[in-house]
Amino acid sequence: MAKIEEYSKLEDSDIVVMVENNIKTSVGYYDSEISKERKKVTEYYNATLPRPAHDGNSKFVSQDVYDSVEALKAALLETFAAGNNIVKFAPQNADDVETAEVCSKYTDYVMFRQNDSFEVMNSAIHDGLTARVGVAKVFWDEKEEIIEEEFTDVNQDELDMLLAQDGVELGDSTTNEVGLISGTIVMARDASQVAIQSIAPEEFLIEPQAKSLDDVNFVAHRTRKTLTELREMGYSEELLKDIGSDHEDVEVETDPEILARFESIGASRGFDTKGYQDQVRDIMVYECYMMLDKEGTGIAYLYKVCKAGNVILECVEVDRKPFIVFTPLPIPHAFYGSNFASKVIATQNARTILTRSILDHAVITNNPRYMVVKGGLTNPRELIDNRVGGLVNVSRPDAISPMPQAPLNPFIFQTLQVLSEENENTTGVSKLSQGLNKDAISKQNSAAMVEQLATMSQQRQKIIARNFANQFLKPLFHEVYRLVVENEQYEKVVDIAGNFVEIDPTSWKEKRDVMVELKLGYGEQERDAAKFMQLHTLFSQDPNLQPMYQMPNRFNMMKEALQKQGILNVEEFLTPPDQLPEPQPDPMQQMQTQMAQKQLELQERQQQLAEMKAQMDGQMTQMKLELDKMKAESSHALSSDNQDLKEEQFAHKKYIDEAELEVLKSAEDVRGIASPTG
Fold first, then answer.
1. Global pTM value
2. How far, in Å, CA of 409 to CA of 98, rounded?
3. Beta bridge partners of 329
4. Among 174, 209, 295, which residue's Cα sits nearest to residue 25?
5. What is the C-alpha to C-alpha distance for residues 562 and 122, in angstroms, rounded to an integer?
6. What tens digit of pLDDT does each residue of 205-244 get?
7. What is the DSSP letter of 119?
8. Per residue, what are the HEC states of 378-414?
9. Rounded to an integer, what distance in angstroms lies between the CA atom of residue 454 and that of residue 430?
10. Are 646 and 639 in contact (CB under 8 A)?
11. Which of 144, 195, 499, 583 has a CA that sits 20 to 30 A from residue 262's CA?
């Protein structure tokens, strides 16, 4: 039976030895292989190399390394840090859409409002392109914020109520003659939050045979700290006094890479700490993450070990490493990838040499050397002092003649063009992708042709961009989200894109899937926005699609179109469907409804009138029959009455005639009386 090996617990001294051994191995690999390359790349990036071969020759330096790095860095930053919402959390189901959007916006808020993630991305991309790998550190930063507030003229009971609150203490105070108190109260507010920091390449250490960050047994972050800073971090005086004054490991500051970096701005680092108090002298602190079997159980766990000098400041078990790395040109099964910038060094050397030869030739051509016949010059200094309009006294006409100068090789310019094309093929950074090639936009090349050419030239850029999205941004979003869910215990209201949103991380899910929508360069965002607008027009005008294209769908379509154009605060321009007032009836539709109702009422009345007319027609027919009968009966009676009437009229007329005759007779008698004959 195999003997079971017994393991013992690790003491601090044992851990110190193990940490130092890992540090030496990592630093040795870094100094021998990585640092020298980074120094060389930094000097080429700063255009200090290659140096002139001879004194007095042209000092021109082609900036191919700088141009390639900055062009690619600009494209990546414009894509990922310009508010394009490239990274989002995917909803788990239909009910999770709103929550996923809130999580995405708040994570973005933590990254870009609470932290300077633009600078973090800039540093990670720059270091990745020039130093093989860019590193960021993400952790929960526990800190308190001290707030002082003044109060005036309060009594003792009111003051006791103020001081009864948690974390509130009395500061300076005075009491007046009537017993009222004035002064200040000091409150400690929890200001802990997610912290995102960029790490300089020389500060990051990893074991030489590492394949990835996940499977390493040792990785460390080394930083310079003062005793004052260590005290502020909460380390006890007992630990700090044991560190001593031996700071020989600060020699990392003499790293050639650091020196090259500061030489580019004409500065130098002062490493002599004489004249400084011990409280502000630099101490190299190693924050190591390594696998340890500290308890002697036979199973190793991940520990965070902080070491300063020979003192272990902290040794606690953790569940993950706080680092996120970006490798633009990864090599399979290796932590460090290829160096993007170093691939342009050969081009910079060649272009520099050829351009210097052109400039030197131009100088020699404009200022040629002369052949002088011995004794032909009265004063040779007159020829050396090449003054404009100056005189040269000669003893014979052919005393001076310019020396023959070989013509410039015409293939130099062709070679320069070939080098430019080779550089574009190597880096994937072309003038067309940068919008600098005016010859591409011509009558012969349509917009579609230019777009196709630009897309082809960006293939390598897109690969690097996808590496950045998958290696750096997705883990960064995951880690920020996880730290928020684990540590933020209070509901809050934050301003996100101009809207105040209630955030409750305690109710969020522990894990979420991250999706990346990558669009790079040459108007891809604008083209996507135009596509959404075209879809909006199509859905709105097609009668078959209109029933499926309702108000929420319209809002989402226009929201995507605006966000593709960089407008994040969409709610300032479009009101969400759930915030719209109750829909008012359509006046035209309302009028049509009223007209239809009136028409129906008219038809009903017409029907009623028709029925009434038919009824009246029947009644009129009956009445007509009765009337005809009455007419027949009355006609007979009328005939009899007419006969009686005629007889009465005849008798009456006879009576009248007789009366008239009588009157006439009486009148004649009167006239006879009045007019006697005579």
1. 0.73
2. 68
3. 338
4. 209
5. 26
6. 999 889 999 889 999 999 988 888 888 888 888 888 878 6
7. H
8. CCCHHHHCCCCCCCCCECCCCCEEECCCCCCCCHHHH
9. 9
10. no
11. 195
